[in-house]
Amino acid sequence: MKQASLNAKLSGFLQDKVISKIYLSFQQFLNKYVGTKKFVTCVSGGPDSLALAFCSKLYSEHTKNKVFYLIVDHNIRINSAKEAKSVQKNLLKIYIKSNILTIKKSISKSIQKNARDHRYDLVSKFCKTNKISFMLTAHHLDDQIENFYIRLTRGSGLYGLSSMSIHSQNKQGIFVLRPFLNIPKKDLMYVAKKIFKTFVKDPSNTNDKFLRSRIRKLKSSLASEGFDQSRILKTISNLNIAKEAIDFYVKKFQKKYIHPGHKDKVHIDLKLFLEQPAEIIYRVMAELIQKRSGKDYPPRAKSLEYLISSIQANNFIKTTLGGFTFSLNKQKIIMSKENRNA
Fold first, then answer.
1. Cβ(161)–Cβ(144) under 8 Å?
2. Is residue 327 within a helix (H) or strand (E), and if so which, with residue range?
3. What are the phi and psi torsion angles at 338 (to 5°)?
4. Which contiguous run of DSSP H or E holds residue 295?
5. Alpha-carbon span 164 to 141, nearest angstrom
6. What is the pLDDT of residues 103-134, one digit of tens each?
7. 3-227 fold
8. What is the DSSP letter of 181?
């Protein structure tokens, strides 16, 4: 199809008010965070990711960005390779050429978590190889609410219950962007149906084996008791305000109490553990260990709390956590890489 005809076809969809509103929001988001730089769009074949693919295609036609559309074959279901190719074929309806990445490792335990981790690793490696800094995912408003419920069942604190970020940087240094976080799933499904007609229906979405599926079924019952979407979003908003306040002081005290030492060592002023509130101490140490380790997540809460209580004890000398050694030297805690061969 000639360029002019393709642009006309894609732009024609913007006559629809729902599609136009979603694309305008997407366009403003990408103008702010990506501009004309190249990026990856992750496509599962579900309605959310197809809406993301459409918006990415339309944006790139106007701005001339180079976009890589990636489909990941998790190699879990019997027909996963065939399914990936069907997604590839579906994208061709709006002239999107895509690549299929296949996870080679066998996934049998904690299927959803491990599949997600392997997927992000695979896409991040693709980004690094191709010198791409941005990865777009189709997380949406319903995901925010489901995450809130899931973390509530796990006893999460302020940081766990507050929302996903619209942008974050993973351990490989790739910026993960979520332009649809304020858009409900039903609107994205509307876009996918209008443009692609068909989409992949993931059987795990209705499988009660997975907590997220069970949560989805509970949502309507909880809403009838007054625990509806608007109240949850208000709660998440309030939590985010509190989180921003804590983040402000965490950054302030990181500069005050943490200083680089000799040969990759870090000096932590003992006053941090004696003067500041428990939550501030916890967050400063969690961010420090996560950043130094290069991992996507900080250490487990119980382990980190044990480290802090050990340092605060009168007889503290030395302990280890997350591949690091923490030892007392006068009025400083020295953090250094753990020598596991010693």
1. no
2. strand 324-329
3. -75, 130
4. none
5. 10
6. 887 766 766 777 788 889 999 999 999 999 99
7. Rossmann fold (3.40.50)
8. T
pTM: 0.82
User: Could you please report the per-residue DSSP string of 18-42?
Assistant: HHHHHHHHHHHHHHHHTTTS-EEEE
Is the Cβ–Cβ distance between 240 and 163 less than 8 Å?
A: yes
Candidates 101, 9, 120; CA nearest to 57 is 9
Residue type, 122: L
- Is 256-337 a domain of CATH 3.30.465.60? yes
| Amino acid symbol at 232 | I
Q: How far apart are CA 159 and CA 224, in angstroms?
A: 27
State the pLDDT at residue 205. 65
Residue-wise pLDDT tens digits, 203-244: 666 666 777 778 877 777 777 777 788 888 888 889 989 999
pLDDT confidence of residue 263: 81
**Could you say which DSSP state residue 190 is in?**
H
Amino acid letter, residue 87: V
For the chain, first and last CA: distance in Å?
Answer: 65
For the chain, what are the domain ranges? 3-227, 256-337
The predicted pLDDT at position 107 comes to 64
Which residue is it, tokens 């335990």?
A: 109
Distance CA 325, CA 332 (A): 13
> Rounded distance, CA 20 to CA 12, Å?
10
